[in-house]
Design goal:
mainly alpha; Growth Hormone, Chain: A; two-stranded parallel ribbon; globular
Length: 439
């Protein structure tokens, strides 16, 4: 079994992958696609549950709160489990939790209980916390540290494929295309058929999630049967293994600010996509299926941006490229706030291309030089995904007070300002003395 270490010689040409790691790399890279599907099905669920449960935008935004709370609460246990038993154990655990959460959609739909759905989403996200904590760190340290950003961006490039798949599945199979006006609602109520309509709309979410859960369950067994390389300290005896120290992490300014940057990035991404359908419908009055296709399109732009960024990083330093993209997104979101309508829709649509490199780049920059603290640091950065639980309800509240989805877009605007600062200044690695270096 090959052992991967991060002590490559500076004179060696930087390799993207260490020898003998291709199969694990492919299997783990596929996970980036698999967790992209439920992340962006949430954007569809917000619109669907607003209809089937008659929710306000604030209450519908709690879908993201329940989901990202799972990330926040389970990321640290995931890191501790993987520190003791290795990456493979954590990834398999995450896949089984993910699958279990999708299967809970069936009883939740049968009893038609919104809180039950929120619990199911929490379980799914708990599994994804294991997957993201393990996969991001595993890919980052699977070769030469000098290529960690490129390697992680390559794997993360498949995440938008999952995102597009999720949005497309939701648009085609969850959205019915039936949007009742007040007169039609009154007519159905008078005929005693309105509750049956709401129930049918709720049941539309079940089949896609059951199929997804079955695929995930099978993938767990594939990983379980595959030999993984030992990563640095995983191959050493327990009494000789260097352990991370959470207190030490606070001595790395680039890591601490990376956690904050990741909080703001996930808030910007989730907030934008959660309410993009509503933004489109408010200002262009498109039907839900058309708006869903716009969401799918912006996710395609996200995927193209990820592959483009991976290529550009051969010529431009990752942090500098992210800063340039951050400046562009500040301008685009400002247009979405100030020019709602077709201009605003296309401006918000385009932000996905330029946000695409941010998550993996912030993650890779944040864990650089953490040494034995890498897994622990990675889990803390994943915990920053809690930003996705905060931004959507905040935007929903702003909408309730202002009745303007354009004004609510000021939330992601603020997020991009900090990310741009981190790109140019906060991400500079400063390793404290005696803390060690390398991965």
């Amino acid at each position: 079994m090959p052992t991967v270490r991060g002590d490559a010689k500076k004179d060696d040409p930087p390799r993207l992958l260490a020898a003998g790691t291709a199969l694990p790399f492919v299997l783990v890279t596929a996970l980036f696609l698999l967790w992209g599907i439920p992340n962006n099905l949430n954007d569809i669920l917000i619109k669907q549950f607003m209809k089937s449960f008659e929710l306000t935008r604030f209450k519908a935004g709690l879908i993201q709160s329940a989901f990202y709370m799972g990330y926040f609460l389970l990321s640290m246990p995931a890191a501790l489990l993987m520190r003791k038993y290795g990456y493979k154990a954590g990834l398999v655990t995450g896949l089984f939790l993910y699958s279990a959460g999708t299967f809970l959609f069936w009883p939740a739909a049968l009893v038609r209980d919104y809180s039950f759905f929120l619990f199911a989403l929490f379980v799914i996200a708990s599994g994804l916390a294991f997957l993201e904590t393990g996969s991001n760190s595993f890919i980052a340290v699977l070769g030469d540290p000098r290529t960690s950003e490129r390697r992680l961006n390559l794997s993360q490039a498949f995440n938008p494929v999952g995102a597009v798949t999720g949005a497309l599945i939701g648009t085609v199979f969850i959205f019915s295309g039936i949007e009742l006006d007040p007169h039609q609602v009154s007519a159905l109520r008078a005929a005693g058929k309105y509750q049956a309509y709401l129930r049918s709309e709720t049941l539309r979410v079940v089949t896609p999630y059951l199929i997804l859960g079955s695929v995930v369950f099978i993938w767990a067994f594939l990983i379980l049967k595959t030999k993984f390389p030992k990563i640095a300290d995983e191959g050493e005896a327990p009494d000789r293994r260097p352990h991370g120290n959470s207190a030490t992490l606070l001595r790395y300014p680039h890591f601490v600010q990376g956690v904050v940057a990741q909080f703001f990035y996930v808030g910007a991404q989730v907030g934008t996509w959660s309410y993009f359908i509503q933004y489109i419908q408010d200002y262009t009055h498109r039907p839900e299926k058309v708006a869903g296709l716009f969401l799918t399109g912006t996710l395609v732009a996200f995927g193209i941006g990820r592959f483009t960024a991976t290529y550009l990083m051969k010529f431009i330093q990752p942090n500098r490229l992210m800063g340039i993209f951050g400046i562009i997104n500040i301008a685009l979101v400002s247009a979405g706030v100030l020019l709602p309508g077709r201009v605003g829709v296309w401006a918000v649509f385009t932000t996905s291309f330029f946000m695409s490199l941010m998550f993996p780049t912030i993650f890779a920059l944040g864990i650089k030089g953490l040494g034995p603290n890498t897994k622990l640091g990675g889990s803390v950065i994943i915990m920053a995904i809690i930003g996705g639980a905060v931004a959507p309800p905040a935007m929903g509240l702003i909408y309730q007070f202002t009745h303007s989805m354009a004004t609510a877009m000021a939330v992601p605007l603020v997020c991009y300002v900090f990310i741009t600062y981190y790109s140019f200044y906060g991400s500079r690695v400063r390793v404290p003395e005696a803390a060690g270096a390398g991965y």
